[in-house]
């Protein structure tokens, strides 16, 4: 199959929204940004063996390639609208391509996001997705903005994906339907949560490389410090089933990464509104710490003791493997 036949077969769709003037099939896309809005743009690359294990089903790879980008827009309080896809393939495998495209496009339809362009080439498998979205002018959430006294809140249950990956790296065979594996392979982008807290939070980030490391980005950008309470971390039943309460490996929810949950700061007077908004959005949210004027991050264990972590999260150029 020639390159353009591949694009037409798996990735070309008729434009569904009037804001797409010209989509897949030309040298570039033409998009219409509505008045009173700003364009939000993010891009991520997934590499086989780095961002997803070799045995990951292609539909899950397609889902995750888009989900991690939608998560970035969720952290900005943006509404995703369009994506482009740069796909590098070692060979043409129709079965792999069809299920990969299905995983990506199924999630795109769930969020009413349209694929408007991209590129295909031959080489080691890698997937680069660029996502574009909209926020009303001047309303985007940022990492900068946290203030002393703000509460730190997190969606979902951090640590699930890291535990699944830890077991896979140890050579365990896991059921693809295992809740932990689903959290690793098919993360839920918290778009609705980001929209719900856009006017309530003071700063926000998504957890991709580890809760402590990503919180550190907010602290640095905002010029503040924080204390985290591990006793408040929301751990899932699937996570706890493999960890007795008195021997929890706290590095998994604190530094493991791959959660793609939202971590944000909120003034105390907005906490009730946050809980109400995220209940409507169907998303668990938990208060796990507070912002302080004193610089640095202090992590307290279940008994109030100070935890010292060897690392705060994943770094592509210093960490050899996840988690």
How would you explain this protein's 3D organization?
The structure is a single chain. The protein has 323 residues and is α+β, with helices and mostly antiparallel strands. The protein folds into two domains: 134 residues, 60s Ribosomal Protein L30, Chain: A (2-Layer Sandwich); 150 residues, PurM-like C-terminal domain (Phosphoribosyl-aminoimidazole Synthetase, Chain A, domain 2, Alpha-Beta Complex), CATH 3.90.650.10. Helices cover 30% and strands 24% of the residues. The chain contains ten helices and twelve strands. The strands form three sheets. It has a six-stranded mixed β-sheet, sandwiched between helices. Strands 3-6-4-5 form a four-stranded mixed β-sheet, covered by helices on one side. It has a two-stranded antiparallel ribbon with strand order 1-2. The C terminus is likely disordered.
Keywords:
alpha+beta, 6-stranded mixed beta sheet, disordered C terminus, 60s Ribosomal Protein L30, Chain: A, 2 domains, 10 helices, Phosphoribosyl-aminoimidazole Synthetase, Chain A, domain 2, 4-stranded mixed beta sheet, 323 residues, 24% strand, single chain
């Amino acid at each position: 199959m020639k390159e353009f036949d591949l694009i037409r077969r798996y990735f070309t769709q008729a434009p569904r929204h009037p804001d797409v003037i010209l989509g897949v099939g030309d040298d570039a896309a033409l998009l219409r940004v509505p008045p009173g809005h700003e364009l939000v743009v993010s891009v991520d690359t997934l590499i086989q063996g780095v961002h997803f294990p070799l045995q990951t089903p292609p539909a899950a790879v397609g889902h995750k390639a888009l989900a991690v980008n939608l998560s970035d827009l969720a952290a900005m309080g943006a509404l995703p609208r369009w994506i482009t896809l740069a796909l590098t393939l070692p060979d043409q495998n129709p079965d792999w391509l069809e299920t990969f495209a299905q995983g990506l496009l199924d999630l795109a339809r769930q969020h009413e996001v349209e694929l408007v362009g991209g590129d295909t080439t031959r080489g080691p498998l890698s997937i680069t997705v660029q996502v574009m979205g909209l926020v009303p002018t001047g309303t985007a959430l940022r990492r900068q903005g946290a203030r002393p006294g703000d509460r730190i809140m997190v969606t979902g249950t951090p640590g699930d994906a890291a535990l699944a990956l830890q077991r896979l790296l140890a050579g365990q065979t896991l059921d693809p339907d295992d809740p932990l594996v689903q959290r690793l392979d098919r993360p839920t982008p918290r778009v609705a949560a980001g929209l719900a807290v856009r006017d309530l939070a003071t700063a926000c980030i998504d957890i991709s490389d580890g809760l402590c490391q990503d919180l550190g980005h907010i602290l640095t950008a905002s010029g503040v410090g924080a204390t985290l309470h591990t006793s408040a971390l929301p751990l899932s039943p699937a996570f706890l089933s493999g960890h007795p309460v008195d021997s929890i490996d706290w590095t998994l929810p604190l530094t493991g990464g791959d959660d793609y949950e939202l971590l944000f700061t909120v003034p105390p007077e907005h906490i009730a509104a946050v809980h109400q908004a995220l209940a409507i959005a169907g998303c668990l949210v938990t208060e796990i710490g507070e912002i302080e004027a004193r610089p640095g991050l202090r992590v307290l264990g279940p008994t109030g003791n100070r935890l010292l972590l060897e690392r705060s999260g994943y770094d592509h150029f210093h960490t050899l493997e996840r988690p």
